[in-house]
Amino acid sequence: MKVLILTVGKTRAPLETSLTQHAPDGVVFLASQDSFPVAGELVRDYGDGLRHHTLLVEDAESLLESYQKALEALQKALEWEATAIVADLTGGTKPMAAGLVLALTGRGVTFSYVGGKERDQETGRVQTGSEQLRVLEDPTARLGLREWEGFTRAWNALNLGMALSELDALLNRPLSPSEERFYRALRGVVEGLMEWDRFRHPEALDRLRRHLPLALAVAEAWGHGAKVRVLKGLEALLPSLEAIVEAGGRPSFALLQDLLANAERRAELGRFDDALARLYRALELAVEADLQERLGFSLKNPSTWPEGFPEALKERVLRPRGLMELLDAASELDKAFAQKGTLAQRLYREKERLQGLLQKRHQSILAHGTRPVGRGDYEKLRDFLFSLDERLRPLPPWPRF
Q1: Which of 107, 115, 227, 245 has the most crowded CB, counting CB atoms within 10 A?
Q2: Where's the Csm6 6H domain (predicted)?
Q3: Helix or strand or coil: residue 333?
């Protein structure tokens, strides 16, 4: 079913041209107080066999009301199960025409306008009998604005899979060479972030090194401030990613901070069970990274242990029965190497508080129970970690549009 949405002014001729040439199955008139009689005449003369509905714009000079009425007209067309919708902006006031365009762009609507070269010298109106119908392309469709809006929403919501889908939709459109380069490079950036989010750091770094500079260069050439800001923000995070990769799997505070940032992203998505599980691992990693940084060996890799490593602690370090035993063993290990006031020792001194904070994790589906973890449960443990040591802070969040 083809539906025509028609703004109505006081002049009938161009409206009749639109009606006869579009030949719709249904028409929704947008009329003002002054043009309402004209809509009535059109219904009388063209209404046979035609579904019709009239919406009255009380204040024809109001852009807001015109916008709202245009949305109502679209809803009516959809109620009629329209398969094609044309919006003709010829008649009515300028705010009525502007409201129609603002409301219906990016919604799969085709626009039209009745003009003509022969005009009345006094009024400037097209002379009757010389009207010409022009079909107008929705510019947002040509420019992919709807897909880009969908991409930025998905990016900001950390829905990277959906962001890729929106980029693919953009790449399937006719593009200029620079647009093609930008969207393909941006696709590589998103794929890099997906790898980063999965802790596949070498793969993430490889993709970002290849695609981020090109995407940023095109955005700068375009002068698109938001794109430049976001991509420069990612560029500023690359040294942290490089530090993780250069560590070659060894425990490091760069990796710990990345893990905490990953936990924050899970919490933003409402996945507090996953977020709290990451904090639990962060506690273990904090001890491992601290020992690696101070004493130069990996707690979980016996081949790196120095001479004099206490025999009694080996089994407890490699196969602890829980976090508290690991903290106890690491604290004893520091004492054996004459270390005082270490992170492991500070954590072990807080073991009673830690046990209380971790109770929700133990009761969750990811540990030994079925109880859901709430925002407050996550934030209490997170804030405890943040307050304990400056190194226990997440990397900056990925920038948003």
Answers
A1: 227
A2: 143-238
A3: helix
| CA atoms in the 13 A half-sphere facing the CB of 340 | 1
How confident is the model over 104-135, as pLDDT tens digits?
Answer: 998 889 999 998 766 565 655 666 666 789 99
Which of 190, 158, 156 shows the shortest CA–CA distance to 171? 190
Alpha helices, DSSP H, located in 157-252: 160-171, 177-197, 201-222, 225-246
Q: Considering the domain 2-140, what is its CATH architecture?
A: 3-Layer(aba) Sandwich (3.40)
Distance CA 106, CA 377 (A): 42
- Helices 351-362 and 272-295 cross at an angle (nearest 10°) of 140
Picking from 67, 74, 40, 72, the residue whose alpha carbon sits closest to that of residue 55 is 72
- pLDDT tens, position by position, 339-387: 888 888 888 888 788 877 777 666 666 555 667 788 998 999 999 999 9
Nearest to 100 by CA among 144, 146, 133, 57: 57
Query: Which of 5, 213, 252, 263 has the alpha carbon at shortest distance from 109?
Result: 5
Cα end-to-end span (Å), the chain? 39
What's the whole-model pTM score? 0.73
Separation of alpha carbons 221 and 242, rounded Å: 27
Q: What's the CA gap between 32 and 43, in Å, rounded?
A: 15
**70 burial level (CB within 10 Å; 0-12, 13-18, 19+):** buried
